[in-house]
Amino acid sequence: MKKIKILAIVGSLRKESYNRQLALEAKEIIGDRVDFTILDYQDVPLMNEDIEYPAPDAVRRVREEVKSADGVWFFTPEYNHFFSGVLKNLIDWLSRPISDKEPQVLAGKPAAISGISLGMSGTGLAQDHLVTLISFLDMKVMNVPRLTIPSAMQYFDNQGKLTLEAIHPQLEKQANAFVNFIQAK
């Protein structure tokens, strides 16, 4: 049986973002059961139809990575009750048809969503907005379980490092559910 490929998309470009760290924890928890990759998309330009055809190299590269994935796991921050602008920009590029003969790469892809934030709402509102968008784009969203982690400051150790062992059971539950969700599709 072919190894499942999960592509993680982190909604923050910051190197030490909490959501990048959460994605790395997910990668560690999921282990060798799947091929788990974090998408690097910091070189993707702002969406601009003037440069859409032919698409810039960075856009072609991320489209191919999404196309080859069996599922996409979003790790989103929450900025002003919404997901980030960089994530919206990436999704805008991914939502466009590759050509008049080849549709956009998100349609039919299984998707999971997690997020951690400093605020009290976790990333629940951002996740709700993200579900609306990616459902419209025909992604198959795993609605349960979703992981929203509020008050990230409680997970810092004395050296100021984010430690996420306390949420491992919830993250492992979501990881297992997502693998099963992908296999069922």
From TrEMBL:
Molecular functions per Gene Ontology: FMN binding; oxidoreductase activity
One protein family per Pfam: FMN_red
GO terms under cellular component: cytosol
InterPro entries linked: Flavoprotein-like_sf (IPR029039), FMN_Rdtase-like_dom (IPR005025), NAD(P)H-dep_reductase (IPR050712)
SUPFAM superfamilies for the chain: Flavoproteins
Domain NADPH-dependent FMN reductase-like: 4-152
Protein name: NAD(P)H-dependent oxidoreductase
Highest classification ranks of the organism: Bacteria, Bacillati, Bacillota, Clostridia, Eubacteriales
